[in-house]
Specification:
Elements lengths: L3 E9 L3 H10 L5 H5 L16 H12 L6 H5 L4 H20 L4 H8 L7 E8 L4 E9 L4 H10 L4 E8 L4 E8 L2 E8 L2 H6 L19
Antiparallel strand pairs: 1-3, 1-4, 2-3, 4-5, 5-6
Length: about 210
């Protein structure tokens, strides 16, 4: 089970035209994929990737065989070995097409996290050409997604507030046309809460009750 991170992403646009176009494109069921979709060839790939020579050697050592190719293993009678060989072949096909062997590596490289945004909600402020997303992400903040998003809309400003109880941190940053700037940070989640973040100390008093918050 991952350490979940809470995120609030505020997207501020200069014009109503850009605001409306962005709002229509964004999908809370797949926020990152709305703008940077994972290539279909990566569906069903396996992480971590195993190099063909390594896997062939492992099979030959384990079974006292002399396979030379993954295809040979895939056509052999052992169902488990065959499926594993086929998965490595699929990974290699993905690499040849998109430069990445598996979904995990691609997601981390292009979004900054392994999975899509979870429990994503949206609020729009049409008078201010602003869209606000609240969502969770696993293990860390999707910084790469926000930075890349800002290059798609270079005239807009993207403000991220991110914090995690499990990771025990809180920080905030802005992105404008690919430029990343930290605007606020705390060493611990408790410090952020005590300073009024995430609803303040009263909102989290049960969490810190042993410390008499």
């Amino acid at each position: 089970m991952p350490n979940w991170v809470m995120n609030q992403l505020t997207c501020i646009f200069k014009t109503s035209e850009e605001y409306n176009a962005f709002k229509e494109k964004a999908n809370t069921e797949g926020l990152y994929n709305s703008f940077f979709p994972m290539p279909e060839v990566l569906e069903g790939t396996v992480s971590p990737h195993t190099e063909p020579d390594v896997y062939i050697a492992q099979v030959n050592l384990r079974k006292n065989t002399n396979f030379l190719t993954l295809e040979g293993i895939a056509l052999a009678g052992d169902e488990w070995d065959a499926e594993r060989a086929k998965s490595i072949i699929k990974n290699l096909k993905a690499y040849s097409e998109v430069g990445c062997t598996n979904w995990y590596d691609w997601n981390c490289h292009n979004w900054g996290v392994k999975w899509e945004a979870s429990e994503c909600t949206v609020k729009t402020l049409s008078d201010f050409n602003t869209v606000i997303f609240n969502f969770n992400s696993p293990w860390g903040c999707p910084e790469q997604f926000v930075t890349s998003l800002s290059t798609l809309y270079p005239d807009a400003v993207f403000e991220m507030v991110t914090g995690s109880i499990e990771n025990d941190n809180h920080y905030e940053f802005t992105c404008n046309n690919g430029t990343y700037k930290v605007t606020c940070s705390y060493e611990t989640f408790k410090e952020a809460v005590m300073d009024g973040k995430w609803g303040g100390a009263r909102e989290w008093e049960i969490l810190f009750e042993d410390e008499q918050v």
